[in-house]
Amino acid sequence: MADYSKMTTDDFDTKRCPQCGQTKPRTEFSHQTYCRICDKAYKHGLIQRYADFRARHGQSKTIKQCGACLQEKPLTEFHKNPHIQDGRHTYCKVCHATMSEKRVEKYRQYWEEHDAYTDTPHITGVKRCGKCKQRLNLNAFCYDSRRWDGLGTRCRACTREDNQQSRYGGCVKADDSCAICGTLNDLCVDHDHKTGAFRGILCKSCNWMLGYAQDKPTILHKGADYLDQWASENPELAYPEDYADEEEDDTTEA
């Protein structure tokens, strides 16, 4: 990887054309990789090549020339592409597969050199998370068709934490507990449904309880009063452990 700290302004003002191998000012380049002269020559050669092909075969609907191997093959040897005039891809199936394999191998070597992956995940069965740096099983990563191995770069836990942080401004940490019941299991982020602001960390049961109560304290207070009234009217049916904490608090205050 280039060391940008050692580069000067001249290095950013110039660019090397991979076709002619000359280093030229960036004004000599358009939005293409080649310089303007090489790009024009390349397009001219492409037009001339297609013109020669049409002169030999006319407007053939059964034969096409591959843009990579330059061989003339039937249209069935090309993948379908509705964005091209003849409805077929520019490269034949063999060249397309070869280019895809080279691209995947190039990305694999790049990530191995930069210590993102030290092993092939589908062979070893483990992969390193790009955030927490832990080696986890493949089922700990989400599916991502854009990656060369079909898996995301971060594990599910790190992805969920980032989503919670970016969406609500808070996330579940390892030492957190439910702010209502104090449990350590099934924790989630609680947020205000109107403003989306982060309120705290709750377990799923307490979070659902607030949701079913429509986030209204009056409903929750009425529910607590209802339970207290039923327990006072039916002391033989109430569970003593449910009111043990309240009795201890009353004794302490007395």
Q: How helical, in percent, are the residues?
A: 25-40%
**What general outline do the C-alpha atoms trace?**
elongated
CATH class of the largest domain: Alpha Beta
Mean pLDDT: 76
Termini separation comes to 72 Å
Q: Count the helices. How many?
A: 8
CATH-assigned homologous superfamily of the largest domain: His-Me finger endonucleases
- The computed structural class is alpha+beta
Radius of gyration (Å) = 33 Å
Largest sheet, strands/sense/barrel:
2 strands, antiparallel
Strand content: 15-25%
Word description of this protein:
By secondary structure, the chain is of the alpha+beta class. The protein folds into four domains: 17-57; 71-114, no CATH class; 125-170, Wheat Germ Agglutinin (Isolectin 2), domain 1, CATH 3.30.60; 171-244, His-Me finger endonuclease fold, CATH 3.40.1800. Helices cover 40% and strands 18% of the residues. The protein has eight helices and twelve strands. It has helices spanning 9-13, 36-57, 93-113, 121-124, 156-168, 204-212, 217-233, 244-253; strands at 14-16, 23-25, 63-65, 72-74, 78-80, 88-92, 126-128, 135-137, 141-143, 151-155, 187-191, 198-203. The strands form six sheets. It has a two-stranded antiparallel sheet with strand order 1-2. Strand 5 (78-80) and strand 6 (88-92) form a beta hairpin. The longest helix is centred in the N-terminal third of the chain and has 22 residues, at 36-57. The radius of gyration is 33 Å and the shape is elongated.
